Amino acid sequence: MKLSKTLMVTSALTVAAAGGVYAAGHGMADSMTLVSWGGAYQSSQQKAYVEPYLAMNEGVTATWDESSAEAVAKLRAMNEAGNITWDLVDVVAADAIRLCDEGLAMEIDADELLAAAPDGTSAEDDFGDLLVSDCFIPQIVYSTTFGYRTDMVPEGVDAPSQICDVFDLEKYPGKRALEKRSINNMEWALLCDGVAKDDVYDVLETDEGQDQALAKLDTIKDEVIWWSAGADTPQLLADGEIFMGSTYNGRLFSVIEEQDQPVAMMWDAQIFDLDGWIIPEGLPEDRLARVKDFVTFATDTQRLADQSKYISYGPARQSSAPLVGQHADLGIDMAPHMPTDPENAKNTFLYNYEFWADYRDDIEAKFQAWLAQ
Amino acid sequence: MSEAILTPIEKKPMNFTLPVVGAFGAFFGIFVGAANGSVLLGIVLGFALAAGLAFVAMEVLDKSQERMARYGLVALFVVAGFLLGGVPGIVLGALIGWFFGWLIYWIGEGRYRARLVPYLTGGQVLWHYSFRVLCGAIFVFLITPILVVMPLSFNAEDFFTFTPEMLRFDPEGYSLKHYRDFFTSDDWQQAVWNSVKIAPAATLLSVSFGTLAAIGLSQPHVPGRRLIMAILISPMIVPLIISAAGMYFFYSRIGLQGTYLGVVLAHAALGIPFVIITVTATLVGFDRSLTRAAANMGADPVTTFFRVQMPLILPGVISGGLFAFITSFDEVVVVIFVGSANQQTLPWQMFTGLREQISPTILAVATILVGISIALLTVVEILRRRSERLRGMSPG
Questions:
Q1: Is B356 on the interface with A (CB under 8 A)?
Q2: Does residue B249 belong to the interface with chain A, where contact is any CB pair within 8 Å?
Q3: How many Cβ atoms are within 10 Å of B380's Cβ, its own excluded?
Q4: What's the pTM?
Q5: Interface touch A231/B253, C-beta < 8 Å
Q6: CATH assignment, A144-272+342-372
Q7: CB of B112 within 8 A of CB of B106?
Q8: pLDDT tens across A39-88, in order?
């Protein structure tokens, strides 16, 4: 009957429902709504820091909302309606920058909010360049890269190992999966059309450069299946519908190591991106206090290292790297599966936030028009 | 009556039988050919094989050997199917063999005319059967997506894929793990629990308000009843996303967004039009002199409603309620706006699951839901027939 009573209370208190009843003495709300991506990533967060935090703080509850994909739109609507129901939101860095610019995310002081490393290095230095926005609390480094089916490599040919093998239909015939957006695809296309790595963004700034990239993509367009959700490429690879496809490296790890599919990684020209938390602007005091307490715990050195036991994304703190251990269930070493591992990171890109903030709308419109042709 | 022979039948000439049976052979040849690399070859071979078999059955074998010939065909196709496609090939081969055995004699002996009236032209006969085939094809088209989902939900792997093990009917390829996942995962159980709490409450509200509104609006003296009716039915006509966005901002202002009550009210608003429409339809056949007779005998309006009117319009109320229940139980757009993470319903959970991780657990849930829907509709239909029988409305 406790449940129906809670329901009556929530119906009556309505807005206060998300905050719940005040925890006596601490001035902290005793429930949080965390927003994340669902799937294996969310469960790695659940195991690495949400469960330990709840065990330490009895009486506190956490609810997941799997809405990160539409976080920007929903936060705008919540702000408009004056009704912020989320306490902590997991977003990619580009979205964090947008939310920060629009004033929907709270600016934070990294040294004040986040724990210092065990050796005393300040949080600001420990996260370093990854603090790409004043509102952004980085958790992981992930990469968008390619996986291919080992049993579909033509006989007498080496397995694909270069990014340009994706564009080589003669040597590696078969379908490819690429993300249905310009970001990443344009860079790869230019790179394989003879543009030097350092010049890619200079070339992509110009109309001719954009046309050049699209012309390169045109050469494989008939063989491309366009994906929009991270789960698409793993499904297509498992089906044998495609020979190779791009997706997030953690998804490929799961296909290869956990699902045991005949798939292998191709790390060449992987593109790094960041994922992390933002705190929505305008939370009431008690909920803000709870979220700050949680986020300090959840992004300390040990917790970020723990997360890599469950998923192959690199911890955002430098001090976490040496603590990366073995997979919690499979017992394999996780370090070689990290996108940041030196073996894998011989040739990498870092998602260029400034460039894409300036050119995203134009290039994306061009790309979508090209897609529709 | 359907067994009666209306038209005397006779054996058809070979220049009719062979092309018709051959055309069916060519049709199946398309699929076998496509599977083996050459569509054109499949069509030609399929035509030749089917026509050849028809010729042997009609001209070489005696009519008394029909039974033997048909069993022979099944055996032949089973062996061919096994050679081409292993165990699943046997099943398909048996079905195709049976079909051609039946088809050859049905066409060749002219049996297809037996149950039709004798004056139909050839074109009319053709239309008679193509119409039925067309209806069947539409039915198959509607039902196949649901049927495909069911075996996939027993997949031993975490993908929406018919694995080679599954196609070989190897027990290794099947597993109940996605059902176990559904029944043991907190997320899914919470979603089921939320749906079970929200849908009946929303249905109850829809049925009560919808029935009252329908009765009121069926009184001729109510002013502006067409306008009121149009407003009440509008949630059914306005695109869902617009209702949802509107409800989101309105409910946020008055503090109902993200609450159980808010979701129930939103779903009730969506369900009310269904109840109004079905109840209004049954009220058309309702004899108003009955309520006057009841009043004449001293019953107050409430008693009249429950003892006289309600039992007569009950079928409309029940089917309206069923629609309202399904609307709430299936609804994903409005709940995403009006609900918060604490009110995640089953469709919401399926929607996010499908977008973020294509896991066959969704298929297991879908299979369970299809089973429940079938059971629910069967029960309602049985109850309806029983009540009709008890009230002497049908001879059944």
A1: yes
A2: yes
A3: 15
A4: 0.76
A5: no
A6: 3.40.190.10
A7: yes
A8: 788 889 999 999 999 999 999 999 998 888 889 988 998 998 888 999 99
